[in-house]
Amino acid sequence: MALALVAGAAWAAYILIAVRINATFAGGTGLALAMIFSAFLLLPSGIAGGGADLLELSVLASGLAVGLLSSVIPYTIELEALKRLPASTFGVLMSLEPAVAALIGFVALGQDLSATELTGIFLVVLASAGALREAASPVPRDV
Q1: Are residues 2 and 36 in the same domain?
Q2: Of 42, 63, 84, which residue is a domain's last?
Q3: pLDDT tens digits, 30-70
């Protein structure tokens, strides 16, 4: 339970910080700075774990592909959406990400979910739909 509260607080902080970064930096500058900061933050543990193997071309290419597909592209899309949506609406839509991930895992990887997990995902999707339905229609923001 405590871990879920910490995770929820981290997501809320992410959304609020992203709103501020979007307002402070033009274009993708804020995201680029965040990615560089994160890379340097994780560099010591990466070097300790991977050592000289990190310098192999195949490892560097794989790392670049994973970085682009798992972070740069999704976060760029999220930041663009956050520019156009209120933070509250964006937060509700973010709550749907685990359901999409579970669906992709089922379709692409053949992963199964237990009845409890499916029920939890269904309840989150239902709550998100209810929250969006009750939300006032936002006025689109200029970009």
Answers
A1: yes
A2: 84
A3: 878 888 887 888 888 888 888 888 888 998 899 889 888 88
